[in-house]
Amino acid sequence: MGTVTQGGSRQGRTPLIAGNWKMNLDYQQAIALVQKLDWALKDAKHDASSVEVAVFPPFTDLRSVQTLISADKIEFSLGAQDLSVHDSGAYTGEISGQFLKKLDCGYVLIGHSERRQYHDEGDDVVAAKVKAAIKHGLVPVICVGETAEDLETHGASAVPVAQLKTALTDVAAGTEVVVAYEPVWAIGSGQAATPEQAQQVCEKLRAVVAEALGADAAAATRILYGGSVAAGNIAGFMREPDVDGALVGGASLKVDDFAAIIRYQKHVGV
Ligand code: PEP
Questions:
Q1: Helices then strands (H, E): number in the chain?
Q2: What is the pLDDT of residues 167-184, one digit of tens each?
């Protein structure tokens, strides 16, 4: 973890800007995007130590992106979009955490709302995947968030707080995790939460991490906001003390937009 404190008081937590490509870009397109993003950041003389950048390509792109990152010494972290709860064996179509680790993945998304919605992943599966990730030395990026209906019925924080509590059940104190607060109604809708709304929930999520993993771990844990993050709104989120970065979907597929999000410290007023 670094020492960045610009834009909110985040006690040495290095901001993390993560791009979730979802089911977009084949391996050739993935290579092109990573190269162009790297050039764009280098052209802009971006200080790579000030913000950690992570990309989450589809499984079939991971080997190509890993090779490019390592050959060209590109300072991006690599993550996968999912993993199996199993280590190996007769689980057709599943991908083990140990395979991801071998590809130099540092992170894995767990519990993204699209997995919860389209693959019926409930809180128990999410908790099992968190354990599988940790077992294989991957940092889980635990996604939580309320639907529009949850928001109306229970308010913003009840569902994400409950989801995170279950996800962290029996996780050892001090374990490194990343939490992504992604209101489902904000994902892909163009209607982001306000920075104040994000802060209110992220503060509560940090308290959940403190209860589960201890105060030191909570102080070190990066909590991201996700949901229609764009170049024009990232600075507002990054001013909030409990928002340590962003999980970006659509805008991470556009080089100029994602580079501008990564360079949020250059935006006016941050
Ligand atoms: C996401 O799916 O994680 C996400 C935040 O998507 P978008 O940025 O497109 O809303």
A1: 11, 8
A2: 999 999 999 999 999 999
Architecture of domain 16-264: Alpha-Beta Barrel (3.20)
Does 152 participate in catalysis according to the annotation? no
Q: What atom of ligand 1 comes closest to residue 114's alpha carbon?
A: 2
Give per-residue pLDDT as tens, 114-154. Answer: 999 999 999 999 999 999 999 999 999 999 999 999 999 99
Residue 35's CB: how many other CB atoms inside 10 A?
14
Nearest to 175 by CA among 136, 144, 217, 126: 217
Beta carbon of 249 within 6 Å of any ligand 1 atom:
yes
Contacts of 217 (CB under 8 A, 6+ apart): 173, 174, 175, 176, 209, 210
Instruction: Please state the domain extents for the chain.
Output: 16-264
